[in-house]
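sorry to bug you again but im stuck and you know this stuff better than me. theres a chain ive been looking at and ive put its sequence and its fold in token form underneath. id like you to explain what the token line says about the fold, in plain words if possible. anything you notice is useful, everything is just below.
___
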Amino acid sequence: MLALAPSQAQAQAQAQTEAAAMEKIAFLCLGAMGYPMAGHLARAGHALRVYNRTAARAAAFVGEHGGRAAATPAEAARGADVVLVCTGNDDDLRQVVAGPAGALAEMAPGALLVDHTTASARLARELAERAAAAGVGFLDAPVSGGEEGARQGTLTVMAGGEPEAFARARPVLGRYARTLVHMGPAGAGQLTKMVNQVCIAGVIEGLAEGLAFARRAGLDPLRVVEVISKGAAQSWQMDRRAPTMIEGRFDFGFAVDWMRKDLAMALDEARRNGARLPLAGLVDQLYAEVQRRGGGRLDTSSLMTLLDDPASPST
């Protein structure tokens, strides 16, 4: 196949962008991630219909960004070309998508359903089958980058599903994501997100132990981080969380409750496929202790509290 000339490629990209801008989009669930993601779509000029379980939040979104609020996921999805979902867990996702008033009840054949929830690969495959039976395309497309990435439009999307569905979704998802990668068939996006969470859990525990060690050794932890962050120990967590861990601030960010939900899915999948996750299992139990001490809504970096003073509850 001949490569397109630069002018042809630019024209094709422009045509794809214009086509994406004409898509009628429904965004279901306006939580900490969904609200700013939907905001990027509204600012890009998409005709947007939104749904949220707490109607006041949907009304606030419409007041800020325009569009229309719907009373149910089905109402929001009616007539939409693309339906995007970003909710909390498997049970919520199944209800929003496949419940009596779920999106699939009103999605027309040829529409596309994209799920940004961090959910189980098993549910992703189930929803892909339900969508296919309705003539609807489907992607499981969890994201990484946190609330900051959602606000800035720099998220990473790891998608599972048919290549054609991914190609169609890409211009829309590009409104709030900087990196978009098709990982394979339905469920592959969720499996990739599990790898992401397993790696993060290990990095945070290592960072917490290193900072606690530095303090016990009489070193200035900030100076330690200044030095080692220029070498092989550098990580996203070190850059963004080490200063707040040293200060003992944890009342923000990605909650321990959410991380335990994600790790539970990874550990369950590992039992199914035979993978060994000893460190993930250990960190999950450490997070269980943070929860026991009342820190379930603290940022995942609150592992530090177990090392600073193992006998005291987190605050």
Summary: The radius of gyration is 21 Å.
